[in-house]
Amino acid sequence: MSPAGWGTILRLGVVLFVALLIGLIIGRTAAVLAMVLAIYLTAQIVNLLRVEYWLSHRRIEAAPDMRGSWAEVVAIVGRIDRRKQYHKAHVTDLLREFRRLTHAMPEGAVLLGPEHEILWFNPRVSAWLGLRRKRDLGFRIENLVRHPDFVDYLRTGLPAEGVVIQGAGGDRSRWFSFHLVRTDEKLRQLLIVRDVTQEHRLASMRKDFVANASHELCSPLTVISGYLDTLADDEALDPAWRPPVMEMRRQAVRMQTIIDDLLELSKLESNDNRPEDRPVDIAAMLTLMRRDLMAQEHHPRELTLRLDSDAWLEGAESDIHSVVANLLSNAVKYTPPEGTVELRWWTDELGGHLAVRDTGAGIAAEHLPRLTERFYRVDSGRSRELGGSGLGLAIVKHALQRHGAVLEVQSEEGRGSTFTCHFPVQRVLPAPVQTRGAKQDS
Ligand code: ADP
């Protein structure tokens, strides 16, 4: 209890004691005590009414001047009130600052509830996506942005880096990226929207430039290669010229490989003329590819084929063929003739898996994250010497991306590597009845 509380009790005790004494002296103890208590109670009721009046008019009325516990009560209420005012002002300032920031933000932001209903959005989003506060608050965002990729992204949260949608606000010439920031409880989610039209234009200009330049280089190179072939086959060629001509021919072949790979990469990056998805018999494709490779002049001593599933895969056959061809060609290139290569196809509850394992040179861990970059080579000299364009794994990555698949690389320097393609379960199809019964070949 506060000192004021003790003081109040003491004062009441003294008053009652004096009243008792007076009562005893005049022989009317009960009457005197009752009178003193009635006066005391009246004083308390008056104080209570003053405090009540002050509490309900405290914005305009000064605090009443009181004594004892009442003064303490008034002081405590005053303190609580001041603290509340301070926090209120602080929160109001924060809210004002937040609104200023969200207005100035170069990104759009939409706050979504658990059912993706729109709870709030900043002005940038209304300008880009045409959302209106009065009309659209409370509506589910997939009813306003209906693109199937966006709806899938909202449902699954994949891909983790978000999605880019053309013409999300109705204007087909603009591109927007959407990225969901989820909280742990998933009660509220923040959707960040960015206008990526400029980046998209630059990227497609770059892609077009590479595709056009590669295309333009094709014809002169064909002519040069033709003349070099004629020269190399010419019996009358001065022997002193033979080595440089052969070297020129080798370099022309390398240039052709690079141009072919660049063209293939451009084709994979553009969505035009995308090959149609069809059921692909992976076991038959791998069997054929193994046979072709073993018929070539440079082939590994041992190329094992492990078919643990006869399931088919829904996808573009040319893309899947290109993936396996690039991985196999690398395995053969970077594995000495005495090493072994294994091709494996299996399925499980996670999807379809295609792995190429070799016992070759292996790759040091620090190179693994950059392997699929264009022209990234662990050992440039070696890659060039072996006729590599530096684009093989970039092609693999893009071809897999188009199938929603990912590439996993496990490797140990000096011991070998395993490149595994993981395809989503939705793409795995049961083999048609007549082809059932996996073939084992090794
Ligand atoms: P390249 O045409 O140079 O082979 P890739 O994009 O196919 O280009 O591969 C990139 C680099 O990754 C290669 O230069 C090589 O250093 C490394 N690499 C790829 N596959 C293997 C493998 N099976 N074993 C060892 N290194 C590999």
UniProtKB/TrEMBL annotation:
Question: Which first-to-last residue range defines the signal peptide?
Answer: none
Task: One Pfam family, please name it.
Answer: PhoR
The lineage's top-level taxon is Bacteria
TM ranges: 12-41
- GO annotation terms (biological process): cellular response to phosphate starvation; phosphate ion transport
PROSITE patterns with a match to the protein in the record: HIS_KIN (PS50109)
Start and end residues of each Histidine kinase domain: 212-427
Q: Which GO terms describe its molecular function?
A: ATP binding; phosphoprotein phosphatase activity; phosphorelay sensor kinase activity
Q: Name one GO cellular component term.
A: plasma membrane
Tell me which UniProt keywords the record has, alphabetically. Answer: ATP-binding, Cell membrane, Kinase, Membrane, Nucleotide-binding, Phosphate transport, Phosphoprotein, Transferase, Transmembrane, Transmembrane helix, Transport, Two-component regulatory system
Q: Which InterPro entries match?
A: BphY/WalK/GraS-like, HATPase_C_sf, HATPase_dom, His_kinase_dom, HisK_dim/P_dom, HisK_dim/P_sf, PAS, PAS-like_dom_sf
State if Kinase is listed as a keyword. yes
Root EC class: transferase
Q: Which reaction does it catalyse?
A: ATP + protein L-histidine = ADP + protein N-phospho-L-histidine
What Enzyme Commission number(s) does the record list for this chain?
2.7.13.3
Its subcellular locations are:
Cell membrane
What does the protein in this record do? Answer: Member of the two-component regulatory system PhoR/PhoB involved in the phosphate regulon genes expression. PhoR may function as a membrane-associated protein kinase that phosphorylates PhoB in response to environmental signals.
Spell out the protein name for this chain.
Phosphate regulon sensor protein PhoR
- Protein's organism: Steroidobacter denitrificans
